[in-house]
Amino acid sequence: MAQFDVSKEFKGSTFRTDVERSRWANQRKEAALEPDLPIVDPHHHLWDKDAGRYLIHELAEDVYSGHNIIATVFIECGAMHRKEGPEAMKPVGEVEFVNGAAAMSASGRYGKCKLCAGIIGHVDLTLGDGARAVLEAEIAAGNGRFRGIRHGVTWDTGNAAKFGRRQPPRHQVLDPNFRKGFSHLKPLGLSFESWQFHPQLDDTADLLKAFPETNVILNHTGGLLGIAPHTDRPEVFKVWKRLMQNLVQFPNLSVKVGGLGMTYCGWDFHLRDMPPSSEELAEAWRPYVETTIELFGVKRCMMESNFPVDKESTSYGVLWNALKRITANYSAADKADLYRDTAAWVYRLAV
C-alpha cells in the first residue's frame, strides 16, 4: 500500500460532498461478517451543511447495511447551533436537534435500532463556572438522553490543525478556566469526550490526574496522526504506544477504538478510484486496534464507526467488517464487551 502523499492531503474525499463520498464508498460491497453480533455504535454525527447532509435517513441507511446495530450515540459536530441568543447557549440547539432525531427513531419508523439513544453535546468549558448553566440547559434539552460533552482540543504544528472546526491553544486542557468548567461535569453526572491528537496525550494524562472521578472517553484510538510532520510511521507508532501506555493507569478512562479512516491518519485510501476492502483496512489498522485493546482491556474499549467522517476511507458495512476481522479470534465474551457492553455501560444505555 502506498504511503500517504502529503502533497495530496487536502484532495480526494476531503473536498467531496456527502453524496459524492457515499457514492464512492458504496462501490465496495461486502456481506456482513458475524451479522448477528450486537453492536452499539458509540460515535457518529448528524449534520446538514454546505457539503451535504447526514440526517436520520442517511444514518439509517448505513446502520441497516447488514450488521446488527442495536443502538447509537451521537457526538457533537457543530450541527444546528442556535442562530440567535447568548453565544454560550447556542450549542444547546444541537442537543435539541438530535433529541428530535432520537424521538423519530423511538417511533419505530426507522427500524429496531435505537438511533441517537445517547447524546453528547458541546459546551465551551473555558466559560469556567459559567459553563454550568449551559450544561444544565443541555441536560434539559436532551430529555433523558444527554450524557456529556465534547470540547475538542486538537492542536498540531502541521496541517492536521486545519482539519478541526476550532483553533484551540496548544495546552487547552491545562487552562484554569477550562478546568473550572470541567469541574462541573462530575457533579452533574456527565462525561467528557477527549478529542485531541496523539502528541497531546500527555496533557490528557494531566487532566485525568486532576479529575480522577470524572468519566472520560478517549476518542479515535487516541487521535493518531500520519501526515507531516508525523510521516515516519514506525516512529509514530512508537510514540503513540508510549503515550497510550501512560494513560492505562487512569481507571476513569475508556477508549473508542476506531476513527482510523480519517485522512489525517495518513493512509491513501481516500485517493483511490476504488475504496479498499475490509482486508486492506484490517491490515493497516490492526497494530493500533490490537495494541489499544491489549493495553486497556476489553472492558475499557468500545469499537466505533465515526461516521460519516470515516466514509472518507470506506463504507459503514466494510468498516465494521474490517474491525471484525481484527477481532476474529477474540472470545464471544470479549466481543460482547468490545462491540456492545462497554459502550452500553459507559453511556448508560438500556440495550
Features of the shown structure:
351 residues; alpha/beta; eight-stranded parallel β-sheet; 14% strand; disordered N terminus
Describe the structure.
This protein has 351 residues and is an alpha/beta fold. Helices cover 33% and strands 14% of the residues. The strands form two sheets. An eight-stranded parallel sheet has the order 1-4-5-6-7-8-9-10. It is globular and about 50 Å long. Mean pLDDT is 94; it is low at 1-13.
Strand order of the largest sheet: 1-4-5-6-7-8-9-10
Count the beta strands. Answer: 10
Helix content: 25-40%
Q: Kindly name the structural category.
A: alpha/beta
Q: Give the overall pLDDT as a whole number.
A: 94
Count of individual helical segments: 10
Topology:
Elements: H1 18-25, E1 38-44, E2 47-49, E3 52-54, H2 56-63, E4 68-75, H3 92-106, E5 114-121, H4 131-141, E6 146-150, H5 176-182, E7 191-194, H6 201-210, E8 216-218, H7 233-245, E9 253-257, H8 278-296, E10 301-303, H9 316-326, H10 332-346
Parallel strand pairs: 1-4, 4-5, 5-6, 6-7, 7-8, 8-9, 9-10
Antiparallel strand pairs: 2-3
